[in-house]
Amino acid sequence: MENKEGFLDRLFHLQANGTSVKTELLAGITTFMTMAYILAVNPTILSGAGMDKGAVLTATALASCLGTLLMAVLANYPFALAPGMGLNAFFAYTVVLQMGYSWQMALSAVFVEGIIFVILSLTNIREAIFNAIPMNLKKAVSAGIGLFIALIGLLNAQIIVANPATKISLFSFKQSVAAGTFQTTGITVLLAMAGIIFTAIMMVRKVRGNILWGILFTWILGIICEMAGLYVPNPEMHMYSVIPNLSAGAAAFMPASLSPILGQLDFSNMFSIDFFVVMFAFLFVDIFDTLGTLIGVSSKADMLDSEGKLPRIKGALLADAFATTFGALMGTSTTTTYVESATGVSEGGRTGLTAVFVAIFFALSLVLSPFFMAIPAFATAPALVIVGFLMLTAVTGIAFDDLRESIPAYIAIIAMPFCYSISEGISFGVISYVVINFCTGRRDKISILMYILAILFIGKYIFL
């Protein structure tokens, strides 16, 4: 064991980063379990565009495994990658169903975007963008992501729901009982709330692996409730069984073939204006979602240097770019760095060994999908809500006494959850920072690249 730990220490510099194999394993399990939902959600979304659901599940697992391994090898960071939420919805519902393009054409746009990403990463453009963002905005991005992922958790668990009158509102147990859906949705809301409190108590008591224990606690409670008849799954309401389905026997552990979607790219419209618009939309969102995640999670983990730069960022950006390219070839939408990586970082993950463990679990998910697919959204919601709190603490590093710094930071923070987008939060933050500082006479604080970014963001809102 010592020889193995010594080898891993030399490979990933565990001691230098104040971590251990046990800590990295725990962080990897936690990160994987908070993002395992993508194995169920991505096939569901992309199948709406006419893609084979089983093949998309296989592609999702493989793209996530490969991308996360690349992050470990090229950057030695504890960040995990998978097909991005939001980007997959844009792929299926906007590009294919609304604009009328084939999913093969959409995949080709993702592929071209990935190639451009690789070029931008090799030419230091993405790294320069990262370094150009002021430190106060970087802190704001971390805090904004905290609110954003907390909102994702609350929505996934249906603690927060849509409301025609107030846009969003708290889940109504009274209405659930009246509608006869309490045993399908109401009980899971209660379980998610119990999971949040349980995880918080574990955190206060400094129990090791508190976030992972919160996920397992909530999931096990769900299994008990289903077996007791307190929870009644209803697929029509997207409420599925939380008990692993092993009824197919050995066949349940066989991954679906990639053949229906592997390498199915269509470049026939590559030189059209519409193709460019679609490709640029993928490119823009991916760039700033990735940068936002890297800024937020690395800031929380104290990985930024004294100048606010992230060492080895080129490797991290290249991993993201290559993952997008390979993911498109395998048959899935844009693969990107996941904000749920923050859960593993919160458990102490500091090196690429965390990412290696996440990648291993994604590989195992190909044959253990009945178990991973059974982890419900209400079980991972507590992890997202609690990690949201941990990331929100970054606001303490913002210079609130300097309004020219703090107001743009505030705008960036609130834009992320309210616009449901990391990239929009960065856009609003950059634009407001440049405009406020320019108009109040502090132009020396604005770099040339910040001016360029502000102009590009404004142009995006005008022309896209």
TrEMBL record:
Q: What is its main location?
A: membrane
Q: Which UniProt keywords apply?
A: Cell membrane, Membrane, Transmembrane, Transmembrane helix, Transport
* Record GO cellular component, one term: plasma membrane
A GO term, aspect molecular function:
purine nucleobase transmembrane transporter activity
Q: Provide the membrane topology annotation.
A: Multi-pass membrane protein
Listed Pfam families:
Xan_ur_permease (PF00860)
Keyword set includes Hydrolase: no
Where is it located? Cell membrane
TM ranges = 25-42, 54-81, 101-120, 140-161, 181-204, 211-232, 238-263, 275-297, 317-339, 351-375, 381-400, 407-434, 446-463
Q: Which InterPro entries match?
A: Azg-like, Azg-like_bact_archaea, NCS2
Reading the lineage from the top rank, the first entry is Bacteria
Keyword flag Cell membrane: yes
Question: What PANTHER family does UniProt report for this protein, alphabetically?
Answer: XANTHINE/URACIL PERMEASE C887.17-RELATED, XANTHINE_URACIL PERMEASE C887.17-RELATED
Family note: Belongs to the nucleobase:cation symporter-2 (NCS2) (TC 2.A.40) family. Azg-like subfamily.
Name assigned to this protein:
Permease family protein
